């Protein structure tokens, strides 16, 4: 009966909670990419049909060029999968408010590992932003995993729990965004207002600053004073035997969301807040972040057991207050929601310079490439800013049984005391709990890989689940981008190492994902999994071209030859398309140019070192390691970054490689110019070398900041003398002894 309450409820339940839109221009793009493919095939044909005979000068250089261009071509083919099926997702929040489904509980995981690299004041801003998201507080729990096992972090969390009684109602009253106190007061506070609301804002700001001063005072003392330890029983967990790598499991429920007395300044219930430091022992593998996440999954199942899990890095604060509501639209859709395992948000940053100096936040990556993989229902799990269905993380396969379960899934109704819950949870956070279980294999995040997030997402999708890449206009979560070149390159070394490790393992998408995920998704994954070996073609070009100029050996067709056309067309059209795409999606020309420079630096250093490390590991000569990315830098480094001045002030081997390649290309270009003016190079010979001269000239132009750091600058970001000396010597030796 159409008018009955039951019928109305059923109609509301069938309302779509999200919609999808396919990108336009597929036909035009297909024609363009097909023309590029024809050009690439002609380049391969030229290399094979004009191969120098045995004994000819430059034969091996030519063969190397063929394999480099073969690599460039196949990798380009993979990248096209990212643009074949571009789909964008839009949640329908109004329909969710009309739905008869009850909202599920949400557990938020925040992970930190070292209070010196990830300051507690940074961590608690993320925690406070998560606690204040728009969701019923009785259905919200926030868990902090502290792999550093630091009482400084625990103390900071206690201070944050007290401040949350003021911060949460303040956020709800004024609809504050971003929800991080530090970000809000830094960018949205006007001291010149004198209204009552402004006075309340000033009061909250003063309370926040007082809290930060107390925390920093304790950090500067390098220990929590006894009078503060006596304020909470949790400090009894730390004794003289507790170290970062050797301590018992620690679980402390700081705010019990079940307690009717745990209320904010407006008398409203507070969300649950839990501190966890899983057990660490020197003789037990702890599996880095994957181990911490799995411990959180188990501990949270004991305390709150919410159906949805959101995981955040400790520097990734909540910006969009409705991010939970938007994510639930995807999970709770009557028609398609039961198929979705996770909803991934883009990684965006609050410290990106106007022209994105280090290429940390490419609009094309966030608006084209990652949504392109998501168009196949196989969005990558990127490790932070991701909402998960708990059951999919715990190893279950996708089935129709998950359809319409929200009303039957409730948070844990437990009558045990806080102490009993803590003791039961400690067992789940102990070293020995996982022995003989499927944790790290079929359950939770997968072990044995530095990028546990990507391989876990792939495994979930191969169990039949789909995933969504959602890029809202109002950014959901915002983090901190690497503010120095050294940190940025180290981060990409770790990522590309772990990604290539996945490709070489049983989880290779073409094998593990065969007949489980679409071919386009398999190719899309491999665009990132093959970052490391993609270094080889570019590195070869960067070395072979200057050597060929020293020898006077042409490696490209004469500019008057018809064979020159495919080389010119592929190079020019690819770069024009790349620039146009960047500008269309909000980038600037200088930002695009900075990104091209960073791709050269990444491929010749980070990706190449990762390739070597991964091969060495596959041979059993080393083990997997994990390097934390520093979240704080010196004031001088920060100032240079804001002024968009590249920081080379490190003796890193990567800087030696960058400067050596820069000098090698500069010397070769100078050598050609000298030969032309000295009459040692005839006009007809020069015509055969034009392509090489242009490419070496581009390398020199890209490396402009490197030469400036080597010879002009005298600040702390200039190239160290030892690096300059080594690079000049190595480049000079190469010039004296070309291949």
Automatic annotation (TrEMBL):
The keyword Transferase applies. The active site is at 147, 453. The chain crosses the membrane at residues 27-48, 60-78, 525-543, 563-586, 607-633, 653-677, 689-707. Pfam families: Cellulose_synt. GO terms for cellular component: endomembrane system; membrane. Keywords: Cell wall biogenesis/degradation, Glycosyltransferase, Membrane, Transferase, Transmembrane, Transmembrane helix. One of its GO terms (molecular function) is cellulose synthase (UDP-forming) activity. InterPro entries: Cellulose_synth, Nucleotide-diphossugar_trans. One of its GO terms (biological process) is cell wall organization. This is Glycosyltransferase 2-like domain-containing protein. It comes from Gossypium raimondii (Peruvian cotton).
């Amino acid at each position: 009966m159409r008018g009955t309450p039951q019928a109305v409820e059923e109609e509301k339940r069938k309302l779509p909670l999200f919609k999808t839109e396919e990108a336009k221009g597929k036909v035009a793009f297909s024609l363009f990419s097909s023309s590029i493919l024809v050009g690439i095939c002609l380049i391969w044909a030229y290399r094979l049909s004009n191969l120098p005979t045995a004994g000819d000068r430059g034969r091996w250089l030519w063969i190397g060029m063929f394999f480099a261009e073969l690599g460039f071509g196949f990798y380009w083919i993979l990248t096209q999968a990212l643009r074949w099926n571009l789909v964008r997702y839009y949640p329908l929040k109004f329909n969710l408010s009309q739905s008869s489904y009850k909202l599920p509980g949400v557990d938020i995981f925040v992970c930190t590992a070292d209070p010196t690299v990830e300051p507690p004041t940074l961590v608690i801003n993320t925690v406070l932003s998560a606690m204040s998201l728009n969701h019923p507080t009785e259905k919200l729990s926030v868990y902090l995993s502290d792999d550093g096992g630091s009482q400084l972090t625990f103390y900071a969390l206690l201070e944050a729990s007290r401040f949350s009684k003021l911060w949460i109602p303040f956020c709800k009253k004024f609809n504050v965004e971003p929800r991080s106190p530090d970000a809000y007061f830094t960018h949205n506070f006007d001291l010149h207002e004198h209204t009552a609301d402004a006075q309340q804002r000033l009061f909250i700001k003063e309370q926040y600053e007082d809290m930060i001063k107390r925390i920093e005072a304790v950090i500067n003392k390098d220990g929590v004073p006894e009078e503060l330890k006596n304020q909470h029983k949790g400090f009894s967990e730390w004794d003289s035997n507790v170290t970062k790598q050797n301590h018992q499991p620690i679980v402390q429920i700081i705010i019990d969301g079940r307690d009717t007395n745990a209320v904010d300044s407006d008398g409203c219930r507070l969300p649950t807040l839990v501190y966890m430091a899983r057990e660490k022992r020197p003789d037990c593998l702890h599996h880095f972040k994957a181990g911490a996440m799995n411990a959180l999954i188990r501990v949270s199942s004991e305390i709150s057991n919410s159906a949805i899990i959101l995981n955040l890095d400790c520097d990734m604060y909540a910006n969009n207050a409705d991010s939970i509501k938007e994510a639930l639209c995807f999970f709770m859709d009557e028609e398609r929601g039961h198929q979705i395992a996770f909803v991934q948000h883009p990684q965006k940053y609050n410290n990106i310079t106007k022209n994105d100096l280090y290429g940390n936040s490419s609009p094309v990556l966030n608006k084209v490439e990652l949504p392109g993989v998501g168009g196949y229902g196989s969005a990558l799990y990127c490790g932070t800013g991701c909402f998960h269905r708990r059951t999919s993380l715990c190893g279950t396969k996708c089935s129709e049984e998950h359809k319409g379960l929200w009303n039957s899934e409730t948070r844990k109704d437990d009558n045990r005391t806080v102490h009993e819950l803590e003791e039961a949870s400690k067992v789940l956070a102990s070293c020995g709990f996982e022995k003989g279980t499927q944790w790290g294999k079929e359950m939770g995040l997968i072990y044995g890989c530095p990028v546990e997030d990507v391989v876990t997402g792939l495994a979930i999708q191969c169990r039949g689940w789909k995933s969504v890449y959602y890029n809202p206009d109002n950014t959901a979560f915002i983090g901190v981008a690497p503010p120095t070149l050294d940190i940025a390159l180290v981060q990409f070394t770790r990522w590309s190492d772990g990604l290539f490790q996945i490709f070489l393992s049983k989880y290779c998408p073409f094998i593990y994902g065969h007949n489980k995920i679409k071919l386009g998704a398999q190719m899309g994954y491999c665009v990132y999994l093959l970052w490391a070996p993609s270094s080889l073609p570019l590195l070869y070009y960067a070395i072979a071209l200057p050597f060929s100029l020293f020898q006077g050996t042409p490696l490209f067709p004469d500019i008057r030859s018809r064979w020159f056309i495919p080389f010119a067309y592929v190079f020019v059209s690819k770069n024009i398309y790349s620039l146009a795409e960047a500008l269309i999606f909000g980038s600037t020309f200088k930002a695009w140019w900075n990104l091209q420079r960073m791709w050269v630096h990444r491929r010749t250093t980070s990706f190449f070192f990762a390739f070597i490390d991964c091969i060495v590991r596959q041979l059993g000569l080393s083990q997997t390691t994990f390097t934390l990315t520093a979240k704080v830098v010196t004031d001088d480094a920060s100032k240079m970054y804001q002024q968009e001045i590249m920081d080379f002030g490190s003796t890193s081997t990567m800087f030696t490689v960058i400067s050596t390649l820069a000098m090698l290309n500069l010397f070769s270009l100078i050598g050609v110019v000298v030969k032309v003016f000295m009459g040692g190079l005839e006009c007809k010979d020069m015509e055969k070398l034009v392509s090489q001269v242009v490419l070496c000239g581009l390398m020199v132009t890209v490396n402009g900041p490197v030469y400036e750091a080597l010879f002009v600058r005298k600040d702390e970001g200039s190239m160290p003398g030892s690096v300059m000396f080594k690079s000049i010597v190595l480049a000079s030796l190469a010039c004296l002894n070309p291949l």
